[in-house]
């Protein structure tokens, strides 16, 4: 399969790399930073729930905004807001203030994310789209590989250079701030991209209609995407953002090893997503590889949660992450294929809003469960929710996929 790397794709993917690098360090250390301020796991859950809460409340309007003002402007505005919110969350130490800037981060990130799939559709050929979606997703994980590896070394680096002891709030603050600087660099190539298709200001005008939500509920794809992403988002939020806390608490591993573990995991996700287009070509389907890879990942999820040995836990983490994530861009591509071009931002925001609804409640609930019962109930619940979402993906989308034109299926 041939992929034309025009200048827009190159610049777009460069931003993906820079943001992915920064966000991996953020994810690696932000939980630990909040806990280093002597806050409880309950407070951590509350703080972590702010970004998805903002995305949930504003998701649909942000999707319409993207359809109206264009993908380039939306991505620039969104990424800028996300960076602004991230920066001030580590500058201030009052939980309510951190929560408020988390809302800004979530709003910006949502606008940035819902604009990406329609932009890819606009600047790429149909036969290249599965590969470009996989490449965009894969580059985030590749950047996360580098970010986790580099991030794991930063505590000792700052200790040696700045004489800041590891494991304290100021150390984590310096590490996260340096990562945010890389995210800011991503604004430069994003500023230089162009938009191939003009935006029709009448697109998504139905949002202004009082019957919008009633009409939206009548669209099967909207209902199905909402339910699947809601279930998956809730299941993921219960557990995945806290895996660093789980590993550090259970095995008492240091920051260097923690960074190495997550960097290797991210590297394998990148390699896995590069196989996704080949699976599409082999099966002539985006749904078949999505369902089967995610289904097999459940075995390794429980291995990760209940094995007493670190190296077995590492294998579980590695395989779970690869299998669950490698086909994620395929479902995203499928959602865009079955959406009218003028409503792709809206459909992307529907998916995102449902995900964020699950994330909002899951992140908060997880902190409470961790404090009172530990991680075991979270692994069981997440596995069951994932299984339900996988079944629904097959039931809802596989029959309709068979009716797509041949070119859209490969």
What does this structure look like?
The protein has 18 helices and no strands. It has 410 residues and is mainly α. The chain has one domain (7-194, 212-409): Up-down Bundle (Growth Hormone, Chain: A). α10 packs parallel to α16.
What would a concise description of this structure say?
The chain has 410 residues and is mainly alpha-helical. It contains 18 helices and no strands.
Q: Could you report the average pLDDT, rounded to the nearest whole number?
A: 81
Total helical segments: 18
Report the order of strands and helices: HHHHHHHHHHHHHHHHHH
The general outline is: globular
Annotate the secondary structure layout:
Elements: H1 7-36, H2 41-48, H3 50-69, H4 71-89, H5 95-123, H6 129-162, H7 169-185, H8 187-192, H9 212-217, H10 220-239, H11 243-251, H12 255-283, H13 287-306, H14 310-325, H15 328-337, H16 344-373, H17 376-401, H18 406-409
Please tag this protein with its features.
single chain; 410 residues; mainly alpha; Growth Hormone, Chain: A; 81% helix
């Amino acid at each position: 399969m041939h992929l034309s790397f025009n200048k827009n794709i190159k610049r777009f993917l460069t931003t993906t790399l820079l943001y992915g690098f920064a966000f991996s360090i953020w994810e690696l250390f932000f939980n630990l930073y909040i806990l280093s301020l002597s806050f409880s796991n309950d407070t951590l859950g509350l703080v972590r729930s702010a970004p998805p809460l903002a995305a949930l409340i504003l998701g649909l309007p942000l999707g319409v905004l993207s359809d109206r003002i264009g993908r380039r402007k939306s991505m620039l505005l969104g990424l800028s807001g996300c960076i602004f919110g991230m920066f001030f969350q580590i500058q201030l130490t009052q939980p309510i203030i951190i929560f408020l800037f988390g809302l800004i981060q979530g709003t910006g990130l949502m606008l940035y994310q819902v604009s990406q799939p329609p932009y890819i559709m606009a600047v790429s050929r149909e036969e290249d789209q599965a590969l470009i979606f996989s490449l965009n997703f894969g580059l985030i994980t590749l950047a996360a590989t580098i970010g986790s590896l580099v991030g794991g070394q930063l505590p000792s680096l700052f200790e040696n250079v700045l004489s800041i002891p590891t494991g304290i709030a100021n150390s984590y603050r310096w590490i996260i701030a340096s990562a945010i600087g890389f995210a800011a660099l991503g604004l430069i190539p994003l500023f230089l991209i162009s938009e191939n298709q003009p935006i029709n200001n009448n697109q998504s005008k139905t949002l202004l209609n009082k019957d919008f939500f009633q009409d939206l509920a009548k669209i099967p794809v909207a209902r199905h995407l909402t339910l699947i992403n809601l279930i998956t988002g809730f299941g993921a939020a219960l557990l995945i953002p806290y895996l660093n806390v789980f590993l550090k608490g259970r095995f008492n591993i240091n920051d260097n090893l923690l960074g190495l573990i997550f960097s290797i995991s991210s590297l394998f996700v990148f390699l896995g997503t590069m196989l996704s287009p080949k699976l599409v070509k082999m099966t002539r389907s985006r749904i078949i590889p999505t369902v089967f890879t995610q289904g097999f990942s459940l075995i390794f999820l429980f291995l990760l949660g209940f094995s007493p040995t670190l190296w077995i836990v590492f294998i579980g983490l590695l395989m779970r992450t690869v299998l669950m994530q490698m086909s994620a861009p395929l479902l995203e591509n499928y959602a865009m294929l079955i959406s009218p071009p003028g409503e792709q931002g809206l459909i992307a925001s529907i998916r995102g809003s449902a995900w964020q609804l699950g994330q909002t409640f899951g992140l908060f609930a997880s902190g409470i469960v961790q404090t009172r019962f530990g991680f075991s109930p979270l692994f069981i619940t997440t596995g069951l929710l994932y299984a339900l979402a996988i079944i629904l993906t097959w039931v809802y989308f596989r029959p309709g996929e068979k009716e797509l034109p041949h070119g859209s299926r490969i």
